[in-house]
Amino acid sequence: MNLLLAAAAPFLVFDLNHKQSAEAFGAKIVLESTHAVYDGAQGAVREAVATIRVDGVAATLRCGNYERPVVIGKVQADCPVTGHYNLNSTTDHWGLRADARLRFWPAGSPLMPPGEFGYPLRQRWFLTHTQMANEPTYVDRGEKRSRQKVYYHAGLDLGGAETFAEVLAATDGQVVSLGKEVLAGHEKGTPVAKRYDVIYLLDSRGWYYRYSHLHSFAPGLHLGQRVTKGQWLGTLGKEGGSGGWAHLHFEAVSRQPSGQWGTQEAFAFLWEAYLNERKPDAVAVARPHRYARAGETVQLDGSRSYVRQGKPKYTWRLSDGRRATTARTSITYKQPGTYSEILEVRDPRGNSAFDFATVNVYSSDEDPITINASYTPGLDVKAGQAITFLVRTFGKTNGEETWDFGDGSARRTTQSDGNSVQLAPDGYARIQHSYTKPGDYLVTVRNGHATTHLWVPVR
User: Fold this and answer.
1) Residue 321: CB partners within 8 Å, gap ≥ 6?
2) Which of 276, 310, 339 is the last residue before a domain boundary?
3) Which CA distances in Å does 281 have to 122, 331, 350, 370, 382?
């Protein structure tokens, strides 16, 4: 067992094997066991859990995949990763050399010092697709399936409108890599992997932050510069190894208990920062992506959602015409395609938020086509304001995207390039629309048997 005392960080990190114990903030912790759920299609880990005891009280922690710490007695805890992901992974992101990694904070404390972390995009939370830690990316992007090795994602992919969404510094830090330039002393023995579209910042505790796939850097930004939280770093794009979809790859990397560099899971930090900055009344979470064979039953889970006051009420609007009013529900898909299931979360005062569960359903050896859509402006949309929508279909070059803007207006069409050239500057098709009245509008985009949704709150 190794212990990492995270300098200036308000939590403790332990890499434990089964039946090993540790102490954190006056509580005794034992890792009892770990367990993984694999999909039937590729044998990829779709969910992993760690069962622990805190002062004798048993608790189960779900691993990564949009999870946040939970309170157990004197502490709050999470499990970023278990050893199951290393068994068939193509890449070791975590530096884990044990059965599970566990993190602990005092119960009731903030996850990071107040004001230290910010949300790194100037747009709404979950505006479009995301890819978070431990999600198997080779299936969700429609890549060729392999039953041997899986590329599990690490870091946080936050989709947005290419060339429009502003990328912001999530923390104070120094620019130690800017494109293909690296500050002296950071070339070797660090996580820095220079690339033309990437910025690395280094914070005061020695964590490196990677900002990838940028379309452009902020004018005047230079190597060695010290930046402050919220400072503009550049513009979101799809450059580098993005797979052709526009997003920011944000990842914190630090020394881990093994002594190796590894991902410092930051989803909960950004969640806390966004809630502090924007103070939403409700946040719906229908993710992560699902992947299934035709005829297979898929479990949907909205229990990760949030309301600021009271208890949430859930409504699932399912693609088979049913509605469900529980946090968790299930659906069976008879036909292959890409489905987008609608989740509404409402608080007792009537404030609503929406999110969408993407389910890729395949038949035989073919992956379904998928659609990535987004829009700008991504914050504070007003009635009468022109909105630019962007869309790209993946896996089909000869079809049109059909748009239903959810306000009774006539349907319209676009035609993107099918991701035929991943980094093509005009790969995303664009279309404009505006809403005459305030409201919550659900945009539906279809191309063949693929569907995606966007939520546009107009105020």
Assistant:
1) none
2) 276
3) 19, 29, 10, 31, 19
CATH number at 408 reads 2.60.40.10
Residue ending a domain, choose from 106, 140, 172: 106
Q: Given this model, what pLDDT does residue 138 score? A: 54
Query: CA 389, CA 430: separation in Å to the nearest integer?
Result: 6
Q: Which pTM does this prediction carry?
A: 0.95
pLDDT score for 120: 98
109-123, 136-150, 208-222, 352-366: range with lowest mean pLDDT: 136-150
For the cut 80, the answer to whether the pLDDT of residue 9 exceeds it is no
Q: Are 336 and 220 contained in the same domain? A: no
Q: For 410-446, how does the pLDDT look when each residue is reduced to its tens digit (9 = 90+)?
A: 999 999 999 999 999 999 999 999 999 999 999 999 9
Dihedral sign, Cα of residue 30, residue 13, residue 260, residue 141: positive
Q: In angstroms, rounded to a whole number, what is the distance separating the alpha carbons of residues 167 and 235?
A: 5
Q: Using omega within 30 degrees of 0 as the cis cutoff, is the peptide bond preceding 377 cis?
A: yes
Residue 138 host element (H or E): helix 137-140
CA dist., res. 385 & res. 388, Å (int): 10
pLDDT value for 4: 40
Please give the average per-residue pLDDT across 133-142, as a whole number: 65
C-alpha distances in Å from residue 194, one per residue of 158, 181, 197, 210, 456? 20, 7, 9, 10, 36
Is the Cβ–Cβ distance between 308 and 347 less than 8 Å? yes
Which domain does 329 fall in, by range? 282-458
Please choose, from the candidates 182, 203, 188, the residue with its C-alpha nearest in 3D space to the C-alpha of residue 253: 203
In this structure, are 61 and 140 located in the same domain?
Answer: no
393 in Cβ contact with 437 (< 8 Å): no
Q: What is the C-alpha to C-alpha distance for residues 36 and 74, in angstroms, rounded to an integer?
A: 27
Measured CA to CA in angstroms, residue 203 lies from 11, 111, 185, 192 at distances of 17, 17, 15, 14
Which sign does the torsion angle of CA 181, 187, 190, 194 carry?
positive
| Single-letter amino acid, residue 90 | T
Sign of the C-alpha dihedral computed for residues 413, 415, 418 and 419 taken in this order: negative
| Number of domains making up the chain | 3
As a whole number, the mean pLDDT across the chain is 94
